[in-house]
């Protein structure tokens, strides 16, 4: 179960925020095989005056950061990028140009789960 953080400009209605979160989660389920019930996700809204976006992006710009156990293939990651951007377009009208995705893969000994290192537990995230 990856830890997912979505960061975006504040001011969207709650139903729009939920659609964004659902779109990203569905992509992790489909592309990475994350169990549907394994949802570890947060959404961070930043006041407009404190969130700058790259040139060429609109006010809809957002980032999706995933911390996950290492081991996914380049193909799985590419599928995840496509599915996140496709899902966000369909669910919330967010264009691919406004989506930046970062996957971080800390080594298993850098994950503490229920008081134990993940490499001692045989977990997958």
List keywords for this structure.
125 residues, globular, 24% strand, two-stranded antiparallel ribbon, four-stranded mixed β-sheet, Macrophage Migration Inhibitory Factor
Describe this structure in words.
There is one protein chain. 30% of the residues lie in helices and 24% in strands. A four-stranded mixed sheet has the order 2-1-3-4, covered by helices on one side. Strands 5-6 form a two-stranded antiparallel sheet. It has helices at 14-32, 74-92, and strands at 3-9, 40-46, 62-67, 99-104, 112-113, 116-117. The protein has a single domain (3-120), classed as 2-Layer Sandwich (Macrophage Migration Inhibitory Factor). The mean pLDDT is 93.
List the helices and strands and how they pair.
Layout: E1 3-9, H1 14-32, E2 40-46, E3 62-67, H2 74-92, E4 99-104, E5 112-113, E6 116-117
Parallel strand pairs: 1-2, 3-4
Antiparallel strand pairs: 1-3, 5-6
CATH class: Alpha Beta
Strand content: 15-25%
Distance between the termini: 4 Å
CATH domain fold name? Macrophage Migration Inhibitory Factor
| General shape | globular
SSE string, helix = H, strand = E?
Answer: EHEEHEEE
Estimate the mean pLDDT confidence. Answer: 93
CATH architecture: 2-Layer Sandwich
Helix proportion range: 25-40%
Short description:
This protein has a single domain (3-120), classed as Macrophage Migration Inhibitory Factor, CATH 3.30.429. With 125 residues, the protein is α/β, with parallel strands linked by helices.
């Amino acid at each position: 179960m990856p830890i997912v953080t979505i960061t975006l400009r504040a001011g969207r209605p709650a139903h729009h925020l939920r659609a964004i979160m659902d779109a990203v989660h569905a992509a992790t389920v489909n592309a990475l095989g994350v169990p549907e019930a394994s949802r570890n996700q947060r959404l961070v809204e930043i006041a407009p005056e404190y969130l700058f976006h790259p040139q060429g992006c609109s006010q809809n710009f957002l980032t999706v950061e995933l911390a996950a156990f290492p081991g996914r293939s380049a193909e799985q990651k590419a599928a995840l990028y496509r599915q996140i951007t496709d899902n966000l377009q369909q669910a919330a009208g967010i264009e691919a140009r406004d989506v930046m995705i970062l996957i971080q893969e800390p080594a298993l000994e850098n994950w503490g789960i229920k008081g134990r290192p993940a490499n001692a537990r045989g977990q997958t995230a």
